[in-house]
Amino acid sequence: MLQTGHFTSPPAELLTTTPLDDVLAEIVERRDEFRTKGYVPKDMIAKFKQVGVYRASAPRMFGGDALPPADFLRMIERISPADGSTGWVASFGSALIYLAALPLLFVLMRQPPEVVGKGMARVPGPLFAILPMEWLWMRARAGALRVGDPAPDFTLSTLDHSATVTLSRFRGDRPVALVFGSYT
Predict the structure, then answer these.
(1) pLDDT tens, 127-158?
(2) Which of 34, 109, 173, 183 could form a disulfide with 140 if both were Cys (CB 3.0 to 4.6 A apart)?
(3) End-to-end alpha-carbon separation of the chain, Å?
(4) What SS3 state is found at 6?
């Protein structure tokens, strides 16, 4: 920079590099190697661990840095231009958060439909692409009934809410078809 005829030093933050910057430079140097091999080698994964990529979004109680998701994504956005596949591998650092969501989602899916609907509306979109939602749903809602078991008894209001109907009232009297479906 030039100020009144004298050279001044650039700000210190422009002169220093972070450990991640060093890893980024190495990724650029080695990206052809990664493409040839078809994977990101273990030594690079170790460097991601060293500079904190995989602990970035983990909670502090588990030894992580507890970065907000936006900060973690900015880190991935810095890695991805160096090599897209390597950025994808680095993004697995958020997998702990998604895996931690599995038991919570399972419990949520066992609730009544109105609770499930309200809860699922708050689930971040990327979870639907990453987590085995259909598998979770089928296990959470399966129950213990098997083909040939008697249907569990229940009581429901009629559509006009003028009366209630109890399933067991029809047992042994006449066939009953139970139809369940989504009205969305």
Answers:
(1) 676 667 788 788 877 777 788 888 888 898 98
(2) 109
(3) 63
(4) strand
48: number of Cβ within 10 Å: 23
Neighbours of 105 (CB within 10 A): 21
178 belongs to a structural domain: no
105: left (phi over 0), alpha (psi -120 to 50) or beta: alpha
Determine the Cα–Cα distance for residues 176 and 167; give it in Å rounded to an integer: 8
What is the C-alpha to C-alpha distance for residues 66 and 96, in angstroms, rounded to an integer? Answer: 12
Residue type, 107: V
Instruction: Look at residue 4 in the predicted model and tell me its pLDDT.
Output: 53
63 in any annotated domain: yes
CA 142 distance to own-chain centroid: 23
For residue 34, the model assigns a pLDDT of 92
Is 74 within a domain? Answer: yes
- How many structural domains are present in the chain? 1
Here the CATH number for the domain that contains residue 94 is 1.10.540.10
How far is the CA of 114 from the CAs of 24, 111, 120, 152, in angstroms? 47, 8, 10, 21
pTM over 0.85: no
